[in-house]
Structures are given as C-alpha cells and as structure tokens.
Design goal:
The chain is 39% helix and 21% strand. By secondary structure, the chain is an alpha/beta fold. The chain folds into two domains: 114 residues, Response regulator (Rossmann fold, 3-Layer(aba) Sandwich), CATH 3.40.50.2300; 97 residues, Arc Repressor Mutant, subunit A, CATH 1.10.10.10. The protein is globular, with a radius of gyration of 18 Å. 32% of the residues are buried.
Length: 230
C-alpha cells in the first residue's frame, strides 16, 4: 500500500519543522508550503491525501484555499486555527474542511486524526465475506478479503450513491454523483469527479481485489459488482 502523502501549509518554518519530523517518523511522505501560491506549485507534481492548512497565510485565506480544494480535488483538509477563535471553527466547517485543530497543535491529536483517516486495516480481525461491504454507520468500506478502509465524507457519499444504484443494476449519473458530494451546479466540462473516482479506485484497490468500478460513456459510473450496504 502506498504511503500517505501530506502537505503542511504554514508561513512559519519553525511551526512546520517539528510536525514534519514527526510525520516522517510515522512513515508519511511530507511536502511543505509557506503560501497559497507555493501550495499550488507543490500540487502540480505532488498529489497529497491530506493538507494541513493554516488559516492565516500571506497571500490568501486558508478558508478560501480549503473551499477550492474541496471543490476541485479529493484531498482531506485539516484547518489549523488559533485557540479561542470560535469563528474560525465555523468558517472552517463552512469551507468544507474535514477536520479542524487548534494551534499550537497537539501532536497526539493530529496523529489520531491521521491514523483514523489512513488506517485501512481494522485492529480486530474482520471476517472475510468475499464481497464489498459499505457500513453506513461507521463509514467503513470492507473489501472481499476483509481489509477495511476509513472513508471521508465525500468518499462515503460517492460510494453510497454507487452502491444504491448497483443494487438496482443501474449506473450512477454524473449529475447524481456531483449532487451526492454537494456540488449539484457542476460544470459539464469539470473533470473533478473523474479525479475523485481515479483516486478512490487507486486507494481502494489491491492486487487481488481491484476496486470494481467502470465508466459508463455519456452517463457516469457503475459498480461492476453489487456492493452490500449494512
């Protein structure tokens, strides 16, 4: 399985350095950016699973960046804000951020967030069912060999829509999938859904069990195996 990839975005190098050291020690691939413009350059060649994003950057608001990332990519966003700034929590949630943590960051809390996001194998043994199973309570996807994948909100919404349609032996339209992830007014030229699906396929597939999804031309996407919903 590929190592998780994270970008730390903060204009304070002294803040970034210890977090980077801890994450690398945890086996995470890390890149850094000190501004919104540098983050854009980093993401041209480095495709992260998560962005740690300070709200106060020299060239843009972290909330604007978070909103752009959630609308155009499939990356998890963790907003970092100063203690006591309650309005930052509200703005962070409104921007679509997946998590928010106060500064100074408690490394234990940050690692707990990342382990919850990146851990794909449950601590307890999982019975192998031979089928893909979506748990709508815990937002876990279990592969036929029992491997569990923790889903974020967008991933769960996509899979839930695909799974429901698969039980009807129907594909999910692009419109329905965009609506599921909260983007009903999408542009027909937008390729963000294709990026979402590509990264989802890559993350959930193994050599033995590639994720069972296919493109349906001029319609959308369809699961090639019925997914059990529990």
């Amino acid at each position: 399985m590929a190592k998780p990839r994270v970008v730390i975005v903060d204009d304070d190098a002294d803040f970034r350095a210890p977090i980077k050291a801890v994450l690398i020690n945890e086996g995470i691939v890390v890149e850094e950016a000190e501004s919104a413009s540098q983050l854009r350059r980093v993401m041209e060649t480095f495709h992260p699973d998560m962005v740690l994003l300070d709200v106060n950057l020299p060239d843009d608001s972290g909330f604007n960046i978070a909103r752009h990332l959630k609308q155009n990519t499939y990356v998890d966003v963790v907003i970092l804000f100063s203690m006591g700034e309650v309005e930052h929590r509200v703005s962070g949630l409104n921007s679509g951020a997946d998590y928010y943590l106060p500064k100074p960051v408690d490394i234990r809390e940050l690692l707990a967030v990342m382990r919850n996001r990146f851990t794909t194998q449950a601590v307890n043994p999982v019975r192998q069912t031979g089928r893909w199973t979506l748990d709508t309570t815990s937002w876990l996807l279990t592969s036929p060999d029992g491997q569990q994948h923790v889903l974020n909100s967008s991933e769960f919404a996509l899979l839930n829509e695909l799974a429901k349609q698969s039980q009807l032996s129907k594909p999910s339209t692009r419109e329905a999938l965009y609506t599921a992830i909260g983007k009903p007014n999408y542009s027909p030229e937008s390729r963000s859904l294709d990026l979402h699906i590509s990264r989802l396929r890559q993350r959930l597939s193994s050599d033995q069990f590639p994720f069972p999804i296919k493109t349906v031309r001029n319609v959308g996407y369809e699961l090639t195996e019925t997914m059990v919903i529990v």
